[in-house]
Design a protein that fits this description.
With 624 residues, this protein is α+β, with helices and mostly antiparallel strands. Helix content is 42%, strand content 20%.
Length: 624
């Protein structure tokens, strides 16, 4: 019976007990043969093939060997081969393949997938163009950045751990001689040259979009928090205290040690954190996306900067509309106010934004004046809408606008149930009897200060210090349940088109989730602002690649990551020959490659890596 033999050889070392060196286990394929001796018969193991160290052989590789040997043995020897034939087969195998060893097993699957968006999104061309202009670079910038992006797609790690991953696990034969300093140098180049690189990348992304999608800019922000205790402002103050202490010896030394480095400007600051970590310093990342989710441009701002302030800087940063393309700004209500709307209008853009119905006097006046029933959305039966055209003379912005009020019946039902539950809770609190010498019970104070309940009550006109239900406010809350308001200067769009255009902001939300979860944008451990910005840039490159893969294959990045984890390249040594051999690939992975327009690499190839044959072609600009 053929079996896998494990031989453990102890490494020579001095000492005894725990001080002795640990052994290393080697695997081989063997078969036991009984032979006659002068003292009787004994079982002798016959080694068929030496497989090398056990740690270099993955489970998938071992299963592949077993299946291959079973097929070969069944074909050559039949079902029950005698011992003489086993001996002959062993001798033949050893003669044909002397010293067959598995030297390494590397991750290949995601590299094959990621090579497609890397090329099609223009990242490869943009970085190689920089390399040509800077021929004195000591390392291949494009390959180093590709390796770091690949790591975020496979198993995001710190840059130091990424360097170890490239050397030990990733199939990157071209990485010989790379050091971790090359990764950090690549990050610095990304930071210094990003505006030029981003312009080149945007031109490639532009070719993947239709004319209508090309002119619509979806804008949103997210936060990136740090595993740190102090903000940049607190670090600067601590450093000043140390300076004062060293100047004046009578002062008490600060309790915290002097900071090693800090940013010249306040960058990592506390603000409204969208990740549920208000105690941590953060920065804000503003994304400008195309419909579908591809990030066209981005910027990183201080963590305490408001969204409305960020909008003012983005309007000046983004490309100005040209004669044949009027840009459309799409964002939620938190990004814009009267000042921001004026800036957008002065830039000759059109805009589509949400309007807060509870805070906007104009929106409330228009909604109260509505008459008749809402019209049904032809695509979604639970959605209905009402359109109001506001002339320039009556518009808050001084420009003609179209306002759309939408009602989501599903959301309306949920909100009405919430309102009734809140009213029951408020009624229970108002029924509490106050203690002696008190105008109302303590529970009433809690309702009057509650963020959700206080809108349902008002001070009583009859009893000083008492509260009663505000029936007008309750009726208003019931009326606007499930209602949202949008306003736009794009007057050629009807109600359903305006709703669809605004819901494209969900693509930006999906991109934020990809950045934060599978690609692990946060938490961030960098301290210097340029490295923080470069970390964001690198993750956004990976996110665009992930989105391209998802759109082409119809599979999520998590599913693609799991499939690719089973595809390996094995470095094999056979006598004086050394080559790479691809492991077996399942049909689902092959279908993903086919969807991307590439073929599998050959089963065996030399040390010189050649990207797999592909049918990729540059994409021509799409029309609407």
């Amino acid at each position: 019976m053929v079996y896998v033999r494990r031989d453990t050889k102890k490494a020579p070392s001095k000492g005894t007990g725990k001080a002795r060196g640990k052994g290393k286990t080697y695997l081989s394929i063997a078969h036991n043969v009984r032979e006659e001796t002068e003292t009787g018969s004994r079982t002798k193991p016959v080694v068929l093939v030496n497989l090398g160290p056990e740690e270099a052989i993955s489970g998938e590789m071992a299963a592949s060997f077993a299946r291959a040997f079973d097929r070969y043995a069944a074909k050559r020897l039949g079902q029950n081969p005698p011992a003489q034939k086993i001996e002959a087969l062993a001798a033949e195998t050893r003669a044909a393949s002397p010293a067959f060893r598995i030297l390494a097993s590397k991750d290949l699957g995601m590299r094959l997938l990621a090579s497609v968006p890397w090329r099609m999104l223009g990242i490869e061309d943009a970085l190689k163009a920089y390399e040509k202009k800077h021929s004195r670079l000591e390392f291949p910038l494009e390959r180093v950045v590709f390796a770091m992006v690949l790591n975020r797609l496979v198993d995001p790690k710190s840059k130091l751990a990424c360097n170890d991953w490239i050397a030990e696990r990733a199939f990157m034969p071209e990485a010989k001689g790379w050091q971790v300093q090359h990764l950090y140098r690549a990050l610095d180049i990304l930071h210094d040259e990003w505006e030029k690189l981003e312009e080149l990348l945007a031109s490639h992304l532009d070719a993947l979009l239709t004319d209508e999608a090309r002119r619509r800019l979806l804008v949103d922000t997210t936060s990136l928090y740090f595993e740190a205790q102090m903000t940049d402002r607190e670090i600067e103050l601590l450093n000043e205290k140390w300076d004062d202490f060293e100047t004046d010896g009578t002062l008490r030394a600060p309790r915290r040690p002097r900071p090693e480095q800090w940013n010249e400007t306040e960058f990592r600051m506390r603000g409204h954190n969208k990740d549920g970590h208000p105690e941590c310093p953060q920065v804000k990342v503003a994304l400008v996306c195309a419909p579908g989710g591809f990030v066209l441009q981005h910027r990183v701002f201080a963590g305490n900067k408001s969204d409305s302030t960020i909008t003012k800087e983005l309007v000046g940063m983004l490309a100005k509309p040209d004669d044949d393309r009027t840009l459309v700004w799409v964002s939620d209500a938190g990004m814009v106010g009267p000042d921001q709307i004026k800036l957008i209008d002065d830039a000759n853009w059109t805009r589509l934004t949400a309007e807060p119905l509870r805070k906007s006097a104009k929106a409330q006046a228009l909604f109260k004046a509505l008459s008749g029933s809402f019209r049904k959305d032809p695509e979604r039966e639970y959605m209905s809408y009402k359109v109001v055209d506001v002339p320039a003379a009556e518009s808050p912005s001084g420009k003609a606008e179209r306002w759309v009020f939408t009602r989501n019946e599903r959301e309306r039902e949920r909100q009405l149930e919430t309102i009734e539950r809140h009213l029951d809770e408020v009624a229970e609190s108002l029924s509490r009897k106050p203690k002696a010498n008190q105008a109302h019970a303590k529970a009433v104070c809690a309702v009057a200060s509650h963020v959700s309940h206080k809108k349902y009550i008002k001070p009583s006109d009859k009893v000083i210090g008492a509260y009663v239900f505000d029936q007008a406010a309750i009726a208003w809350e019931r009326r606007i349940a499930g209602v949202r308001c949008y306003r736009t200067t794009q007057l050629d769009l009807d109600g359903p088109a305006i709703m669809r255009a605004y819901t494209e902001l969900q693509d930006v939300e999906a991109m934020n989730k990809t950045l934060k979860h599978p690609l692990r944008l946060r938490p961030c451990y960098h301290r210097v602002d340029r490295r923080i910005r470069a970390h964001v840039m690198l993750t956004i490159l990976a996110a665009n690649c992930a989105l391209y893969l998802e759109q082409k294959t119809g599979l999520t990045i998590e599913k693609l990551r799991a499939m690719a984890a089973n595809v390996h390249a094995h470095e094999v040594e056979q006598g004086s020959k050394r080559y790479w051999q691809r492991g077996e690939v399942d049909s689902e992975y092959e279908q993903a490659l086919e969807a991307l327009g590439i073929k599998l690499p050959p089963v065996v190839w030399s040390e010189a890596w050649i990207e797999p044959a592909s049918k990729l072609k540059k994409v021509k600009r799409r029309a609407s």
